[in-house]
Automatic annotation (TrEMBL):
A GO molecular-function annotation: magnesium ion binding
InterPro entries (UniProt xref): HAD-like_sf, HAD-SF_hydro_IIB, HAD_sf
Designated name of the protein: HAD family hydrolase
GO cellular component, one term: cytosol
Keywords from the named record: Hydrolase
SUPFAM superfamilies: HAD-like
Coiled coil: none
Keyword Cell cycle annotated: no
Length: 288
């Protein structure tokens, strides 16, 4: 039996939300799978390539990675952009204006950078979290001193957004989150909500973009059958890929909505759920 391709989410699935680290045993099991399978473990994440570089390096990922919840596919070796779903400029302008009018914390993603303000919560969080890494593993953050320059960086196509991200504190943000998602739905955008580290994140991407469509595009680029891919996730933004793929898996700490559509529930992240699943796939009986 041939080894399947493993498309793993990062945060909450193999990367612990509280410290952004992967368990040593999970790393060991993934590296073992990489060696036995011919490097068939890759990443499908809501993160940008820039904030995934540490894990790409750590896990010896050589296959193209899917970032920004399916909005971009990048070859980690050449860093060539193989696919991206750019948001139209008139939609971008409405998002910027909405954020400014409501005093919301907003950043956006392009293929090679996170773009935001000096006050942007996520940019400051990532800078602090990765400050001790080698420079080439730190995310590239483009920071603007005022909102007008921030907006014009997209309107003048200095950077081309394929994903916007609103960051809210968990407490007291319910009405603003609801207002934001209604606004984004009215623009006919896809806006998955993720809860992590006392924050609520609302993404904004083109409506035909999610991790499942990203995996379909990846399979087309790589000439791989969809049933050869085992997606693994934990959160709301993993729902489509888990539901639509025959071998969709969810770790036990995942959200109930996504667990309900999974073909298999793995042990939780703290019990090395993904690593143990890879062990079953790496059993000698699976060798060609």
């Amino acid at each position: 039996m041939a080894y399947p391709y493993i498309a793993s989410d990062l945060d909450g699935t193999i990367v612990k939300n509280e410290d952004f680290k992967i368990l040593d045993e999970t790393i060991a099991d993934i590296l073992n799978y990489q060696e036995k399978s011919g490097s068939k473990f890759f990443i499908v994440t809501g993160r940008l390539f820039e904030t995934s570089k540490l894990y790409i390096n750590q896990l010896h990922v050589t296959l193209p990675i899917i970032g920004a919840n399916g909005a971009v596919i990048i070859d980690p070796i050449t860093q060539k952009v193989l696919y991206q779903s750019i948001i139209e400029k008139d939609i971008c302008e409405k998002i910027f204006d909405f954020a400014l009018a409501n005093n919301l914390d907003l950043i956006y993603y392009s293929a090679k950078a996170l773009i935001g303000l000096e006050t942007s919560e996520r940019i400051n969080y990532y800078k602090e979290a990765y400050k001790d890494l080698e420079r080439n593993l730190q995310p590239n953050c483009e920071i603007y001193p005022d909102f007008e320059q921030f907006k014009m960086s997209a309107m003048n196509e200095i950077h081309k957004p394929f994903k916007f991200l609103f960051s809210f504190p968990t407490t007291g943000s319910e009405s603003l989150v609801e207002k934001t998602t209604k606004f984004l739905n009215d623009l006919k955008l896809n806006c998955p909500i993720t809860h992590m580290n006392e924050r609520i994140f609302v993404d904004a991407m083109n409506n035909n973009v999610n991790k499942a469509t990203g995996l379909e595009k990846w399979a087309e680029i790589m000439n791989v059958e969809l049933d050869e891919i085992h997606p693994i996730g934990d959160n709301n933004n993993d729902y489509e890929m888990v539901a639509q793929f025959k071998n969709g898996c969810v770790v036990a700490n995942g959200v109930e909505k996504t667990k309900q559509v999974a073909s298999k529930i793995l042990e939780d992240i703290y019990s090395n759920g993904v690593g143990k699943y890879l062990q079953t796939l790496s059993h000698p009986q699976n060798d060609d």
